[in-house]
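Dear support,

I submitted the protein below through the web form. The confirmation email said the job was done, but the results page showed an empty box. After a refresh the structure appeared. I'm attaching both so you can tell me whether what I see now is the final result or a partial one.
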Amino acid sequence: MCAVYQNQKIVFLSFVNGILQLMIKVISQPITQSTLQKEAQEVLGELVKAVVDIEQEIMAISGELHADEEAVLIGQGSKQKNLWGINLYPDLFGQEDWLEFDSMINLRPSGGNNTRGVEDEKIRTKIRHIVSKLVTKK
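What the results page shows now:
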C-alpha cells in the first residue's frame, strides 16, 4: 500500500493483526532536521537509516534495514548501482559526523566497492550534496 503525505511518498510494507509494522518514506522534497529527529525516535532511537539514489536525487528513510529501503526504491524504478546506504544522526546535524557511510548494501566487489562504506570520493560527495538538499535546519 502506498500513500502521499506532505509531499512525501510513504510505503506501508506490512501489517500484523492490523498493526502497521514498517513504514518507509521516500523523500524527494526537503524535510527538516526536527522531522528527521522524530523519525529516529520512532524507529531506531538516535539514528535514521537511509538509502540515497544518486541518479534520481531522492532517498528512502525509516526502514529497520537498508535493504528494505533499497527494495522500495528499486520497486519505484531506481537502479541498484545508484543506491547507497547511509546512517543519519539528527542530533549531530551540521557536524561532519552526522552522516555515516556504513551499510551492507554498499558491499559490491564487482562494482569496485569492497567495504560497507562508500570508497569513491565522488559518490560520497554526491551523497552529501543530495542529503544536504533533502534535509534542512528549518
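Response: this is the final, complete result; the empty box was a page-load delay. Confidence is low (pLDDT under 50) at residues 1-7, 12-17.
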